[in-house]
Design goal:
The chain is 31% helix and 24% strand. By secondary structure, it is α/β, with parallel strands linked by helices. Bound molecules: zinc ion.
């Protein structure tokens, strides 16, 4: 009897000790997961299935923007109040027409080095696989321009094609500019890495006969219009797909920093080849998109980079697409 009660005292003491050490043992037992949901997001546009593919997240640097002193002072001031003002990212998109699998922009691949930015970017192929596709299934790649955050994902550092069966399409003006040794030789030092990466990334596709330059009037894909959007780069091009009366425009680098440039479309980025033309293109395009019910796919808008524009004051607001898991034209109304 005495032995039993001694055992009981020890057991009660152990339970008490545990409850002191872990006052919320049941709550603390659920581990944090640290991994994110897979980096893709689907949207139906008519009969097209569009999938946004996360390449990585990054924060834009205010010193990479150019505007009037008053505007830029305002941006710096606003950054003190909202440190997330310049949050952004890099996204590519795949369009499944039912006949062809078309990638629009390919993310950064390994072309941003081993540093923090290089580690943050370059996840597009992983996102593509999570979305149920393989790189071998991609038939066509449409590139908006040849900066490495849009074409780096096409080619490995040792010169291999990541999309071995894909034909790559780029505006003639864009290809001729970045792949010209003569133009590269005259370009300023800080632009040299963009010339070098464009040439190395294009090389294996050119060698395989898979690099195609369009001049603007060709039909590359049924139901897709080429939309010249010059300024950011010489041949910067958008791609507008239409299906069943719905439209989606893949607009490339029309906007780099959405919280600043939608309110101030005149603000440019320091790597715009022709800042005046870039601002003019933006000023022409944004009102048109706000008037029409066009879905926009923007690589540097917050993931998944899909939304519409609304006019507000002298600028615009971004209305992200609503999440839905139903392939219906519109979600049912909340109230009949
Ligand atoms: Zn870009």
């Amino acid at each position: 009897m005495k032995r039993k009660s001694t055992q009981m005292v020890i057991a009660v003491a152990a339970v008490l000790a545990m409850s002191v050490a872990y006052p919320n043992a049941a709550l603390a037992a659920a581990p944090q997961h640290h991994d994110q949901v897979s980096g893709f997001y689907r949207l139906k546009v008519g009969d097209l299935e569009v999938t946004a593919l996360f390449d990585g997240a990054a924060v834009f640097d205010p010193h990479l923007l150019n505007g009037t002193k008053a505007t830029m002072d305002g941006v710096v001031q606003a950054l003190h109040e909202d440190q997330h003002l310049l949050d952004g990212g890099d996204t590519g998109f795949v369009v499944n027409t039912g006949k062809q699998l078309i990638l629009v922009d390919a993310g950064s691949g390994t072309w941003f080095g081993e540093g923090a930015l290089g580690q943050a970017l370059g996840h597009l192929v992983g996102s593509l696989r999570s979305a149920g596709y393989t790189p071998e299934q991609v038939d066509i790649v449409l590139v908006t321009h040849l900066h490495p955050d849009h074409v780096g994902g096409l080619t490995t550092q040792d010169g291999k094609r990541v999309f071995p069966n894909a034909d790559v399409y780029v505006a003639k003006e864009e290809s001729d500019f970045w792949l010209s040794p003569e133009i590269a030789a005259k370009a300023p030092n800080d632009a040299q890495p963009h010339f070098q990466s464009a040439q190395a990334i294009a090389a294996p596709y050119i060698k395989a006969g898979k690099w195609h330059r369009f001049s603007g009037s060709e039909t590359i894909v049924d139901g897709m219009q080429l939309v010249p959007l010059p300024g950011h780069t010489p041949g910067h091009t958008g791609y507008e797909f239409s299906s069943k009366g719905q439209k989606i425009l893949f607009w490339g680098d029309i906007i780099h920093a959405q919280c600043v440039q939608l309110q101030h479309p005149e603000v440019t980025a320091i790597f715009d080849s022709d800042p005046t033309a870039a601002a003019a293109t933006r000023n022409q395009l944004l009102p048109k998109l706000a008037r029409e019910d066009v879905v926009i796919a923007g690589p540097h808008m917050l993931f998944p980079g899909l939304g519409r524009l609304h006019k507000e004051g002298s600028g615009y607001t971004w209305a992200p697409v609503a999440f839905t898991d139903q392939w219906v034209e519109h979600a049912p109304p909340l109230r009949k």
